[in-house]
């Protein structure tokens, strides 16, 4: 090896487009063929996708291992595979602290959201909103979810195609079209079973591709200790940042606490995930699958963070955006990966397969969940007499139409120009946050009514878009990347002075509205969730006072009751019988209790409609 202890820069990457060898094409083709094969298998086996129960709910017969792998695949797309290394490469490892948010971000869904939603035996999460509030709230929730998913889907289709195009010159729209079509086909043929089993296979390919890049990168840099030395010298290992400023983009508070709300909006109430919990054969199996997400998600996060570090060590903060004709750090990551893997037969193909696996597994979940909510929330209620055969056919047509819509959305993403990871996290926070707020309002606040929920959702979305669009327009949240390692190695007084000056410029605080716009996007979910709850409660009190009206049994989670579990039993019963639902630790027990006492005033409160 000609490189001496890393002091020589690596040979400059070749700027001509990289070419695939036969082995690369074979690996990529195997990925697509296997996905199609799984779709075909589920189209022809089992119940042959002739009922909506099978097509949309996988017959509610899944076991926890495939469900858990499918759960992590839903929101782990090429955006994370490319975006996280790009983030670590330019800003250091601070983003890794989002792993802390996974603890509560998965425990709360497992023990609060799954028990409530599973026991109601829903098909669509938004059915909950009708049971708890009203039809209008359900439709608004569904439309908000459709909006979120359609935009996110465009981003997911676009990202790998864009990366491939920037590096290999592969036709951008050709790749977008191919991804969209393959995915539409197997989703339409095989239903949720095919979606879950392709997710399992694609998650394995995703991990394998990332691992291959890391191993090759470490080898080319000169071993693990060499990688470590370089990332230390380049200041990429970030210390725990406890700065409480909510406008700091990434700190422990924004990632570890704000991230919990992001996780809740994704793993607690998002249709794609809830549909998987509901497809599990028992509630216990659903909870177990949620627990199993934890190690896999930590592994996924670790792999992408380490990939960013290895890439930094190998290229030492070089910037080749001029050669790529784009200033995107995301394209640069793909460029570096393809440069490292050049000449190793099969590996470039494996990495591209990894990117497309990640994308396909996300898009297929989106298609299927969109087909489900459109069918269950928007169509079925108006055509109660529709035959099962027609409903299933219509679901397939819907899955396909959303596939085509997603291609159109990819074009919209094409017009934006932020880091893909930031765009994804902003969408999750701006649209997912208010939906989370709606569910929290329903589950934890028995006093909230339908008018309050609608007003809360409206206010939450309005505020979310005000801040979100404000930050995009004023470009408030951009932070200066860390210097490349060479600048640090030089360490002459001049550079130090310049960097100190630059640092001062970044640290000068924005004022007024601009400061409001520069709220870290990691707080979006929490902020928008609280807006919905606050406005929802205020309007509920104004329109109905504290009078407790009819609440469908099983839709309220006895939060206060669980928190105040140390109260003596007789006191809790007393509070319960006053109609304070939040003290009732066992709603289901209560239901049976009052079912036996029909004359009781609470029967009205708990009776199903
Ligand atoms: C959703 C999280 C935050 C969970 O770790 C992560 O997977 C992520 O940052 N995803 C980015 C979006 C995407 O990969 O499509
Ligand atoms: Na995915």
From TrEMBL:
GO molecular function, one term: symporter activity
Stored InterPro entries: Na/Glc_symporter_sf, Na/solute_symporter, Na/solute_symporter_CS, Sodium:Solute_Symporter_SSF
Catalytic reactions on record: biotin(out) + 2 Na(+)(out) = biotin(in) + 2 Na(+)(in); iodide(out) + 2 Na(+)(out) = iodide(in) + 2 Na(+)(in); (R)-pantothenate(out) + 2 Na(+)(out) = (R)-pantothenate(in) + 2 Na(+)(in); (R)-lipoate(out) + 2 Na(+)(out) = (R)-lipoate(in) + 2 Na(+)(in)
UniProt keyword list: Biotin, Cell membrane, Glycoprotein, Ion transport, Membrane, Sodium, Sodium transport, Symport, Transmembrane, Transmembrane helix, Transport
Keyword Transport: yes
Mode of membrane association: Multi-pass membrane protein
Annotated TM spans: 25-44, 64-84, 96-118, 139-164, 170-188, 200-218, 250-269, 290-313, 350-373, 393-412, 424-445, 452-473, 521-551
Keyword Phosphoprotein: no
Subunit structure: Interacts with PDZD11.
Similarity field: Belongs to the sodium:solute symporter (SSF) (TC 2.A.21) family.
Purpose: Sodium-dependent multivitamin transporter that mediates the electrogenic transport of pantothenate, biotin, lipoate and iodide. Functions as a Na(+)-coupled substrate symporter where the stoichiometry of Na(+):substrate is 2:1, creating an electrochemical Na(+) gradient used as driving force for substrate uptake. Required for biotin and pantothenate uptake in the intestine across the brush border membrane. Plays a role in the maintenance of intestinal mucosa integrity, by providing the gut mucosa with biotin.
Name the record gives this protein: Sodium-dependent multivitamin transporter
Species this protein is from: Sander lucioperca
Record lineage: Eukaryota, Metazoa, Chordata, Craniata, Vertebrata
């Amino acid at each position: 090896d000609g490189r001496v202890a890393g002091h020589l820069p690596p040979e400059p990457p070749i700027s001509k487009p990289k070419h695939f060898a036969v082995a690369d094409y074979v690996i990529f083709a195997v990925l697509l063929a296997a996905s199609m094969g799984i779709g075909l298998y589920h189209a022809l086996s089992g119940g042959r996708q002739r009922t909506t129960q099978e097509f949309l709910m996988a017959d509610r017969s899944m076991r926890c291992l495939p469900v858990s792998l499918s759960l992590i695949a839903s929101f782990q797309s090429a955006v994370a595979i490319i975006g996280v290394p790009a983030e670590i490469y330019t800003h250091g490892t601070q983003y890794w602290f989002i792993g802390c948010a996974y603890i509560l971000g998965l425990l709360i869904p497992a023990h609060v959201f799954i028990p409530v939603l599973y026991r109601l035996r829903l098909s669509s999460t938004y059915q909950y909103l009708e049971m708890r509030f009203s039809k209008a709230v359900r439709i608004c929730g569904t439309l908000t979810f459709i909006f979120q998913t359609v935009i996110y889907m465009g981003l997911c289709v676009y990202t790998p195609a864009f990366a491939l195009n920037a590096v290999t010159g592969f036709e951008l729209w050709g790749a977008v079209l191919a991804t969209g079509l393959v995915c539409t086909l197997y989703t339409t043929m095989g239903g949720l079973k095919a979606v879950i089993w392709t997710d399992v296979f694609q998650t394995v390919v995703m991990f394998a591709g990332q691992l291959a890049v890391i191993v090759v990168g470490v080898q080319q840099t000169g071993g693990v200790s060499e990688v470590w030395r370089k990332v230390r010298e380049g200041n990429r290992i970030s210390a725990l940042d406890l700065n409480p400023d909510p406008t700091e983009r990434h700190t422990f508070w924004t990632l570890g606490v704000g991230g919990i709300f992001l996780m809740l909006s994704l793993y607690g109430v998002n249709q794609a995930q809830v549909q998987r919990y509901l497809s599990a054969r028992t509630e216990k199996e659903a909870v177990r699958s949620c627990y199993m997400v934890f190690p896999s998600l930590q592994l996924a996060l670790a792999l992408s963070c380490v990939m960013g570090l290895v890439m930094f060590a190998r290229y030492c903060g070089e910037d080749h955006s001029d050669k790529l004709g784009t200033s995107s750090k995301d394209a640069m990551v793909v460029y570096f990966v393809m440069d490292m893997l050049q000449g190793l037969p099969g590996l470039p193909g494996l990495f591209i397969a990894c990117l497309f696996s990640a994308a396909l597994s996300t898009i297929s979940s989106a298609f299927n969940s969109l087909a489900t909510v459109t069918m269950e929330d928007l169509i079925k209620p108006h055509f109660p007499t529709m035959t099962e055969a027609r409903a299933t056919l219509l679901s397939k047509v819907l899955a396909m139409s959303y596939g085509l819509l997603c291609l159109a959305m990819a074009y919209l993403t094409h017009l934006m120009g932020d880091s893909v990871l930031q765009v994804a996290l902003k969408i999750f926070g701006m649209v997912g946050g208010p939906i989370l707020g709606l569910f929290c309002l329903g589950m934890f606040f028995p006093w909230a009514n339908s008018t309050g929920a609608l007003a809360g959702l409206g206010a939450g979305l309005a505020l979310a878009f005000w801040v979100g669009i404000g930050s995009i327009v004023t470009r408030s949240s951009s932070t200066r990347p860390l210097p490349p390692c060479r600048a640090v190695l030089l360490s002459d007084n001049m550079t130090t002075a310049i960097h100190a000056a630059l640092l001062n410029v970044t640290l000068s605080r924005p004022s007024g509205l601009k400061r409001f716009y520069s709220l870290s996007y990691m707080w979006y979910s929490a902020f928008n969730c609280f807006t919905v709850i606050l406005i929802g409660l205020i309007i509920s009190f104004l329109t109905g006072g504290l009078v407790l009206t009819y609440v469908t049994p099983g839709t309220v989670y006895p939060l206060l009751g669980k928190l105040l579990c140390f109260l003596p039993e007789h006191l809790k019963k007393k509070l319960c019988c006053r109609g304070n639902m939040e003290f009732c630790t066992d709603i289901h027990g209560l239901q049976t209790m009052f079912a036996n006492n029909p004359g009781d005033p609470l029967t009205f409160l708990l009776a199903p409609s």
